Target: Thaumatin-like protein
Amino acid sequence: MIFFKDLLSFFFLFVALHLNLASAATFDIRNSCPYTVWAAAVPGGGRRLDRGQNWVLNVNPGTVAARIWARTNCQFDVAGRGRCQTGDCGGLLQCQSYGVPPNTLAEFALNQFMNLDFIDISNIDGFNVPMEFSSVSGGCNRVIRCTADIVGQCPNELKVPGGCNGPCPVFKTDEHCCNSGNCGPTNYSRFFKERCPDAYSYPKDDQTSVFTCPGGTNYKVVFCPGNLSSDQ
Model:
């Protein structure tokens, strides 16, 4: 009887592990910008990507509050310590925390309600590099893009070297950050929404900014999409 119970436990463990492996997601992160970026991911770490290079990241099922972004104008020493002009994560090449605004974000949560993945691009923390976030498997055909000239058109009060801040990091008010849980669009959030209608422009912008795919879908994140023929 003890042997049977052990065997049954092993069987259920094997099935659980198999299901987890089957629903893991792969993220192909590509740099198509005409300049070097230092890709960052939480979870995942970070990597330097020269033009045309990519980084394949495997993300465990059930992962939530995950982000991928680009850092620009970075300098790191041989120990992986330094600083970036935009998107810096505590001065580390291998990010262990979210980046400092402004940074264009690909956000996701895997295998959530009804085993769906939830994905979005967010400008709540501002914008530094054009981005495309798309599904590449599982019959899901989601393509989210934010490629407008937001840095060039950025309102003066949001401008910083190399990027355009979101209003929340700048003003830190309930109106812009939704700290009280109740807020609406502002003139600043509309600036981002008009240029990237599929991206989050303020924290309550869910209806037009969050998308789903079946759990186990694989994804691609491209910085400066369209700059290389391989992106098409």
Q: What stands out?
A: The radius of gyration is 19 Å. The chain has one domain: 25-231. The longest strand covers residues 66-76.
